[in-house]
Amino acid sequence: MRGRICGTGSYIPEHYYDNNDLAKFVETNDEWIRERTGIVRRHIAEEDTTVSMAIKAAKNALTDAKLNADDLDLILVSTITPNTVIPSTACEVQKELGAVNATCFDISAACSGFVYAYNTAQAYIAAGMYQNILVIGSETLSGIVNWKDRGSCILFGDGAGAAVICAEEGEIFPAVTHSDGAKGQVLACESRQQKNWQDKENEKQTYVSMDGQAVFKFAVKKVPEVIGELLQKADLTEKDIDLFVLHQANLRIIESVAKRMKTDLAKFPVNIEEYGNTSSASITILLDELNKTGRFHKGQKIVLCGFGAGLTWGATLIEW
Ligand code: COA
């Protein structure tokens, strides 16, 4: 058995900061941010939370999949910004949906989180344990960003995306994942406090700290490598792949990956301009946009690739 995405959904909070808004907090400007990152806006959850956004994205995905909440066997939420330590975000989503038959837990793998959660869902389906799985990525990164650090606060935004994965006959598609805990300190956050965006004076350890150049170098090396590994495992080449849906961290990272892979940039859809880096939500928000705008066609081969804190990275092959 293997899983197929049979519905997608997303939710983005309405309020946003554009680059000129950020220039009021930190010494920066629209031109610098656009040139170095491709980001123009990032949405901020003022009233929403990681849980409420996850629920809204999940409801959209269930509608798209034409499934009821009680059809779900498993709910997996990838997040690094849960509302509470316990209960898990997945259990909170279950409560609101009334998904009484689902087992629920969270996954913490930062910007690789959706790919890790997707692979976990595939493994459960291949093992015959579950049939219908809801995978969600939801983040309120505005709550852990240091709004005084111009090197990092410009990058991140809030949002949620969800995919329903349903079992079908067939062999599981290949996936490759890696982790390197020894390099974890290049992108870290020691503890968590809600709503940093409102309280710009709070303690330093609750902020994300990042060595931007080290993360950049890691991404442009490891992403082409892991996609290469995946394609080799699948006995495919870049030419066989219709779309490469990458974690939306920085437009320059995506451009550099396309160049290193000698692959047309048009195969790498982007929406980073509007949302910035939404960590584990970014791939699934983009999947939902591509799905709802008719960019996917039956039988297309698509590579998903996530990379980020941990360090973690991975790629997985899907067929639409
Ligand atoms: N506005 C204006 N100037 C800024 C700035 C900002 N927002 N942020 C940094 N600068 C300045 C620096 O202070 C530095 O000035 P100096 O030369 O006077 O010291 C200069 O710009 C260059 O800084 P540098 O850090 O070398 O810039 P960069 O080209 O590496 O871009 C990032 C910085 C963060 C955009 C880039 O490193 C990056 O995107 N890295 C990956 C981060 C990421 O994706 N993280 C999440 C992964 S999941």
Q: What distinguishing features does this structure have?
A:
binds coenzyme A; 9 helices; 320 residues; five-stranded mixed β-sheet; alpha/beta
Strand content bin: 15-25%
SS-based class? alpha/beta
Mean pLDDT: 95
Q: Which molecules are bound in this entry?
A: coenzyme A
- Alpha-carbon Rg, integer: 18 Å
Count every helix, treating DSSP H or I runs of 4 or more residues as helices.
Answer: 9
Number of strands: 13
Global outline: globular
Q: Assign a percent range to the helix content.
A: 25-40%
Describe, in plain words, how this protein is organized in 3D:
This protein is α/β, with parallel strands linked by helices and 320 residues long. It contains nine helices and 13 strands. Strand 12 and strand 13 form a beta hairpin. Helix 3 packs across helix 4 and helix 6 crosses helix 7. The site of coenzyme A (COA) has 19 residues, from helix 2 and helix 6.
Offer a quick outline of the entry.
With 320 residues, the chain is α/β, with parallel strands linked by helices. It has helices spanning 19-22, 30-37, 50-65, 89-97, 113-126, 212-234, 251-260, 272-275, 282-292, and strands at residues 2-11, 16-18, 41-43, 74-78, 103-107, 132-140, 158-168, 175-179, 187-188, 209-210, 243-246, 301-308, 312-319.
Question: How do the strands and helices of this protein lay out in sequence?
Answer:
Elements: E1 2-11, E2 16-18, H1 19-22, H2 30-37, E3 41-43, H3 50-65, E4 74-78, H4 89-97, E5 103-107, H5 113-126, E6 132-140, E7 158-168, E8 175-179, E9 187-188, E10 209-210, H6 212-234, E11 243-246, H7 251-260, H8 272-275, H9 282-292, E12 301-308, E13 312-319
Parallel strand pairs: 4-5, 4-6, 11-12
Antiparallel strand pairs: 1-7, 2-3, 6-7, 8-13, 9-10, 12-13
Helix pairs in contact: 3-4, 6-7
Bound molecules: coenzyme A.
Coenzyme A is lined by residues 28, 32-33, 36-37, 111, 150-151, 154-155, 210, 212-213, 215-216, 249-250, 277, 308.
